[in-house]
Design brief:
Low-confidence stretches: none
CATH architecture: Alpha-Beta Complex
Shape: globular
Strand order of the largest sheet: 1-2
Distance between the termini: 50 Å
Mean pLDDT: 90
Number of helices: 5
CATH class: Alpha Beta
């Protein structure tokens, strides 16, 4: 690791990042675990996102995109293949849990997804 990279990495408050991601994940889990087709236990892990697999995921992603909320699509090359992996790649919503987001941001996202679900 270069000196610059090491100095940059050491400048981050990793404990704050860790706790923020976990807190945001758990907040989304409380809102969506009852409808999520996936089940997650994070233990001591630090999540990248909250994976939400629900009916209409593609439509919800498209509507969020129209509102300038961008959700990543992981494994795009799997999508043309049949099976569970294709369903995950095409319909799972990978909701952000970044340390940049606060509880108000999570509530905004929860409310928006619920509104989209109810309108269709």
């Amino acid at each position: 690791m270069s000196t610059v990279t090491k100095a940059l990495a050491e400048s981050f408050d990793l404990e704050f990042i860790r706790e923020s991601r976990r807190k945001n994940f758990l907040h989304l889990a409380r809102a969506f675990d009852c409808i999520n087709q996936l089940s997650w236990t994070i233990g001591d892990q630090v999540p990248l996102c909250y994976p939400l697999l629900i009916d209409g995921g593609e439509r919800i992603r498209a509507e969020l995109l129209m509102k300038r909320i961008f959700l990543p699509i992981f494994w795009p090359g799997i999508a043309p293949n049949p099976g569970y992996e294709a369903q995950m790649a095409q319909t799972a919503l990978h909701l952000p849990v970044d340390h940049r987001y606060r509880e108000d941001d999570m509530n905004f996202l929860i409310d928006l997804i619920e509104k989209i679900r109810k309108n269709n």
